[in-house]
Known about the structure:
This protein is mainly β.
Amino acid sequence: xxxxxxxxxxxxxxxxxxxxxxxxxxxxxxxxxxxxxxxxxxxxxxxxxxxxxxxxxxxxxxxxxxxxxxxxxxxxxxxxxxxxxxxxxxxxxxxxxxxxxxxxxxxxxxxxxxxxxxxxxxxxxxxxxxxxxxxxxxxxxxxxxxxxxxxxxxxxxxxxxxxx
Length: 164
C-alpha cells in the first residue's frame, strides 16, 4: 500500500490553495467536472510516481442507519493508472467507487462493495461485494494514521445527514 501525505480538507480551504503544481490535478478535476460527487480530501503521495488522488462522496446517496452509522458511496480518483492483484489476476484502474458503512463515533468502517474503473471502459474491470460472515469485516482506524485522517475528513460533511 502506498504511503500518502494528506494535503487538506477541501471543505475548509479553496482547492486553489494547495496542490496547484500537481500535474495530475487537472486530469482528475476534468473527470469529475459537472458530476454529483462532493470532494472531501485531496492527496499527493510521497511516492516518486507523482500520482495525485482526489477523494469524494455522493451526497445524493448517503443513508443514515438506525445504529447512527452512515452508508455512503466513496470515490477515489487517480491521475495515473493504478493496479492491484486480486486472486492472481492484475487489475488496472483509474478510479474506484466503493460503498462503505461508516461509524463516525469510533472511526471504523466496513467496505460493502468496490468497483474499479479505467478511463476507456464504462464497465468496471473489478466488481467485488463483501460476503457477510466471510469478508465483511470492520476496520477500526489506528490513531493518527492515514485511515483515521480519511475517515475524519469524510465524517465532517456526513454530519449534516445525521438524524437526531
